[in-house]
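Recall that a protein's primary structure is simply its ordered list of amino acids. Everything else, from secondary elements to tertiary packing, is in principle encoded there. The following example makes that idea concrete.
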Amino acid sequence: MKQGVLYGVGVGPGDPELMTVKAVRIIREADIIAVPDGQTAQNIAADYLEGKEILTCSMPMLRDKALLAQKHDEAAERICALLEQGKNVAFLTLGDPSVYSTYMYVHRRVLARGYEAQFIPGVPSFCAVAARLGDSLCEGAEPLMIVPASYKNADACLDFPGNKVFMKAGRSMGELRDKLRARGDSAQMVENCGMQNERVFRSLDEIDPDAGYFSVVLVRHGKDKQI
């Protein structure tokens, strides 16, 4: 029997209309839809999931590396069992599967077990946020840095001489806002971009320190720059 293929499908940041034509096709053709626990990615693709068998994978947001590795191993084993049966599996992931995606850990494990796995790109959240704010992420020779704001060593990126995207700030949002303000940086933020509960913050003073996990802060290099 021919083995199935695992597809890591980027469903975009939140607006279902930002799903790519290829993502929709792969979802429609897949035998099984794998989703991380939590409904966000599944809700985005809901119009294409009717009648589909759903495999829910436990992917807790923890920093315990041993426990995370165990969860990733379990997901990979369950998916590989389906691939061995010749079933194609589409694993839904927010944004793009190559950008801070849980899917990547499963992807590597499935490949290591000798099965085929492919990326299906999606619109990254920071691109959607820039579009929502009506400006570019970078122009001309301007560099751009993508930073997971709640992780250690994030402070070292503040002096980067270019534009910055801070993702996944979580409970560190207030601290990040205060540090940017102290530096005299200009920044804006979109929370839950493209979702029903989207909120737009046009300045550091407006940014809610209690904003949710799906918040993206854009910072322009230089005090006179505005996103």
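Confidence is low (pLDDT under 50) at residues 223-227. The longest helix spans residues 65-84.
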